[in-house]
Protein 1
Amino acid sequence: MMPSLSTLNLYPWQLEALNELLRGGRVNALSMPTGSGKTLTALLYALRLGVDKIIFLTRTINEERAPWNEWRGLLRNGVAEGDVASLHGKSHFCPEELLDDDGDPIEDCAKCEFNADNFVNLGRMLSLVNDVLVAMGNIDPTVRGIREAYARAVALPEKACVYQYTKDAVKDAKLIIGPYPYLLLPQVSDAVINRIRDSGSILVIIDEAHNLDGLTDLMSVRVSRERLIETANALDELCHWVYCPTLKINHEEIIGALHAIAYDLGLMLDYWARGLEVGLTMHVNDKEAVRMILRSALNVLNPLVDDEMEDEVMKRIEGLKKVFGKKVYNDNRKLYQKIKKTHHAVSSILDYIDNPHEGWGIYIYREKTRLGIMLRPILAKEVYKWILEELYNLNAMFLLMSGTLPSPEYIEHVYGFKVDKIVAKNPRLGAIRVKIDGSLTSKFEKRNKEMYEKYGKRISKIVKKAKPSVILVVYPSYGFMRNVLPYLNVEDAEVFNEDETRELNTIINSAVKAVKEGRKVVLNAVAGGRFTEGIEVKDGERSLIKYIIIAGVPYPNPKDAVFQDMAKASGLEPRVLMREIGRIRTLQAIGRGVRGLKDNVTVWLLDERFDGPRGLAVKWGLVKPASGH
Ligand code: SF4
């Protein structure tokens, strides 16, 4: 029996939410703003249900801290009992020399010299799982250098890696915290599912569930001119070390062919995608032409990656270790991995063209520096549909949570969860001042030079009057942002743009430093991009984002091919889908400024569609309808 909750000083809305959830069904959803105590409410719900296992899924490692911290509080108060396991991807444990250019590991743990098994005897191996579980309960999962931290905690040399033990510890933990892929991505989820199969009852909590759409990206594969050229360069470099002629690889011919194919692919895509904006996608109309080009790429790459050749190449690479040392050895493994990954992408796209399957699509995409072809699942539910089926067979229950919860239709048709009960609490946190300027609009038919200039001037004026703080400006798309930026006149502020390649943490640290030194910071963000999804600029518990400017309604572009296919595959009207995505993006961006009870933020809504008693600001609950209407 769970002890009394009176020691926890819960807010009234937490108690209400808890009671309502307990009257819910198998799949429930909880909508509460960030900072209002959602995580604690969810954990209490799990405890009240009395489930054997709680799986708490977060978008990134950074978000693991909240449930980990709350659980420790519950243990201290005697409200909960049981261990917590926090999971990190392998790449968080691997040292840099074992990660390829994409940040993916190149080493197999079983063969890895850092594997903790190499540092202990059999007896210690048996107790190590338990020691790691204790370490996971004591060490903040967001701490830098997780490998070293765990190794120290279990009295192993710092280079020893307990990654495999962290997965084994899942079996004995009551609460398992990990990023979405640990349960929802087919290649990764087995690690957890196979270890919880015998649990009597399971509750899966999906934190900030509006981010589930991002899983489709993790499943996508891409081929571009640049990728083919990089692959040719990788082969060139590799052959320098492993001496390809004796492997019967005519590398000069292959490299020449790859360059020629890259050139043809580039030419074709440049022509097809002449009007395609950065950040958008279009359909591939001439699949036959793509098939021909990719077929030649596959023919060229095939002999490099067949099993026999892989053995041969890896033997040669192995040989390099003795003569030239580990760096050369690892660098060559990375080069070979690049070739294999490109081969995989090319063959996956070709397989799809030969044998298209429902729920997936191929598209031409344009990024800032790349134009290519991508294969991806259209809706998030496509990514994990088999896993969900398995979890349902294991009698799992689900709780989807968000500060900006999508509509029940969206959750059902896009995420694949039929929600039995939605519990929504909207306590007033902090202070949001909403201001609307209806003289501007980002409507597609009204986008022109004058309008971009108007936006630029309006934003500059707001920045000029702002206090030293972070000003987050959210544009509907990359193209829109790029068109407005030349008209921004914000000399007294430090400016960061969404399409910069700098690490998010580096940008955040510079922003915090600038504000503390009394300067203003302008973050130019694209709706649904990494700034609005993941940025938190805080000094202690307080957000330093004091102004949020929504520069146009962040609707997806109805011409975008992925968007069109999402509407078709989900069965939702394009208008309904567009509104829902626009609403979530706007509320999510605003949520960046209110992270707790003491935050206050001024929100500027720069679009005529926000204005008026029937405007979006009223419909989306950002302002109350004026009395009399
Ligand atoms: S044992 Fe650790 S360092 Fe080695 S490959 Fe596995 S995760 Fe990476």
Protein 2
Amino acid sequence: MSRRTPYYLILLVLLTACGIPSARSEQSLQFHADSIPAGAQRLMEAYPEQVIGYEDNHIIFWDYTRLIYNEGKNRTTEQMHIEQDVKDIFYQDYDTTRFPPDYGYDPGRYRSAKFMDKLYGSNLNEVLMNLVKVEWCPSLGGTPVYFTKVAGAAEALKRVSDELEQHPELREWVIGAQTFCYRNIARMKRRSPHSYGIAIDLAVPRSHYWRSMYPYANEYTELTYTNTFDMRVVEIFEKHGFIWGGRWYHFDTMHFEYRPEMNPPKSDLEIVETANKPRWYPSPWLVLFTNHYMWSDASYK
Ligand SMILES: [Zn+2]
């Protein structure tokens, strides 16, 4: 380095590169976290065309109707199956490392009926208007199924199908698919996600469902977790924004449901980018300084 290098300038540049920008970005993140709850933020990211904003404890839909986010009630898990607010969707995070699921861990099993009614249709006619046919694993002997086109659900299912078709060895796990069915959840007074065209059941005879195995159990009964489902199928669904009922203590291993707010889709590109991403990016000022003072002599001689 040259004798005439201005050291006060080095100090200034290093401060700009390391300290000041990071402190500022932390502050702005905190500001957003305080003003918009994490759950509402996830809904806006997962359903950008449907959930367009958040204001004054309400999420705002595309038609400017509003739905309260937090009613201020702390419900028990049993109560959450009867009535819910939007925040209850995020009662538990969808953590794939927490497997097999421990007592009471049912991530994504709590849903907001009002939210789903608004997105996918509040009656049979409205839901039917949104259903489209998806060719389900045709090369493996699958049959077409109906799925909602809202929020990219049918497209996501098609991507799952395309990927599963690359694995003929998984055929026995993907045939016999059942999707749309306008009904309530077994022994509950609320509509099943199958009623909205966002869920698909696979390999029913090979699957395990807690209600069938424990017909006299209630929500709080201790169960023995049972699953034989092929995890390669699960991984492909989860990559495209679906959650799996086999991650629930109240296991339903045939069941896959499009829930990008719980489990955001991951593209191949994203996976590669994350793997290659450096942990720290030098500031452009630091790059400029390094190039000018450290390497310029060597480069231009
Ligand atoms: Zn199901």
